[in-house]
Design goal:
This protein has 364 residues and is of the alpha/beta class. The chain folds into two domains: 134 residues, Nucleotidyltransferase, domain 5 (2-Layer Sandwich), CATH 3.30.420.10; 213 residues, Rossmann fold. The chain contains twelve helices and eleven strands. Strands 8-7-9-6-10-11 form a six-stranded mixed beta sheet, with helices on both faces. Strands 3-2-1-4-5 form a five-stranded mixed beta sheet, with helices on both faces. Helix 1 runs parallel beside helix 3. The protein is globular.
Length: 364
């Protein structure tokens, strides 16, 4: 990989400690092309904690899009100096966050840290303030009117027993090692990938659910992972063609940077428009169409039951997007690790619930 990006990050707290949030933006080297954005309310926290959370989000986003060199720019003198190794990390709240940041930074060939004035960090600052606005809104008022039943489950009034989906991403392959687009190609699991699949299988079995079926994408990396899960549960996997990964067409096997260099304008539009497809490939809108069909089938076929679904990044993100009822930005902003576990529930009256996202505790 040869991709170089700029990460600008910020965080803040209204009260220090108080309602806090962070923002991060990943930019191309031209400093104007936005490759990714992240922002999130984090409850009550200090400015410094929020600043570190912004750095973590920015580094994670850079890794997700395949960068191998990162220039971090922040207006937090403390974070920049500590991450550059010039200042010691002494505060207990900072030690773990700094270590998490170092682990993320170690994924890249090179990471630099530069302090910039707040005026030059306006994009990240704007995102952080959006997050702090959300943090100040606070939790939902228990006395507020209950929404219609088909908007959400449980306490909002959804009816019936849900179909619960345990969503497992496949383990590592040679293409995922280099963060290459891996769609309809059929690489096998690496040795680490097989180990990840076995650990994911133990995690699923350990949840204690009465699982009705183990369903899998037809691709080998998913089937191998599903087979490990099936052994742990005593269930043979069933192949569901609709659970296959996005067809990346001519971008198959390329890194983010290589695809962007090959088709710069098309790649740029693909990152923001779900109707755009790679050359000879499939758009995210087309993926959603087949995933909605799979979801409808599962709710009908397994009412009130628990099903394991072993698939890939885009199908799993799409199921989470459908359950949350949110826009397509989730596809670009949500990170899912290899062999991670997520849990969604779909109710017969149309309600839905997301119970877990990107759990990797079993991989530690």
């Amino acid at each position: 990989m040869t991709g170089r990006v700029i990460v600008e990050a910020d965080g803040g707290s209204r009260g220090n400690p108080g309602p806090a949030g962070f923002g991060a933006v990943v930019l191309a080297p031209d400093k104007t092309t936005v490759l990714a954005e992240r922002f999130e309310a984090i409850g009550i926290a200090t400015n410094n904690v929020a600043e570190y959370r912004g750095l973590l989000a920015g580094l994670a986003a850079a890794a997700e899009i395949g960068a191998d060199e990162v220039d971090v720019r922040m207006d937090s003198k403390l974070v920049v100096e500590q991450m550059s190794g010039r200042w010691q990390v002494k505060h207990p709240d900072m030690i773990d966050l700094a270590e998490q940041a170092r682990r993320l930074a170690n994924r890249f060939a090179r990471v630099t840290y530069t302090w910039i004035p707040r005026a030059q960090n306006a994009h990240a600052d704007r995102l952080a303030n959006r997050a702090m606005d959300a943090a100040e809104d606070g939790p939902l008022d228990d006395t507020a009117p209950v929404p219609a039943a088909n908007t959400a489950p449980g306490w909002t009034g959804a009816l019936g027993e849900p179909t619960r989906l345990l969503l497992v991403r496949h383990g590592q392959t040679e293409l995922s090692v280099d963060r290459r687009y891996s769609g309809r190609g059929n690489p096998a699991l690496t040795e680490l990938g097989r180990s990840q699949a076995e650990r994911a299988a133990k995690r699923v079995a350990g949840k204690g659910f009465d699982v009705a079926a183990v369903l899998s994408s037809p691709l080998d990396r998913a089937l191998a992972t599903a087979s490990a899960v099936g052994v742990g549960l005593g269930i043979d996997p069933t192949v569901v063609d609709g659970l296959t990964e996005t067809d990346f067409g001519d971008w198959e096997g390329l890194t983010f940077s290589e695809a962007a260099e090959r088709d710069p304008e098309l790649h740029r539009r693909w990152l923001t428009d779900t109707s755009v497809h790679p050359p000879m490939g499939e758009s995210f809108e087309e993926v959603r169409g087949r995933i909605e069909t799979v979801r409808d089938h599962l709710v009908t076929e397994y009412p009130g039951r628990t099903v394991v679904v072993v698939s890939h990044v885009t199908p799993i993100k799409t199921l989470l997007q459908i359950a949350l009822g949110v826009g397509s930005s989730l596809l670009y902003r949500l990170h899912l690790d290899l062999a991670s576990l997520s849990i969604v529930e779909f109710y017969p009256d149309g309600g839905a619930s997301v119970r877990l996202v990107n759990d990797t505790a079993h991989l530690d």
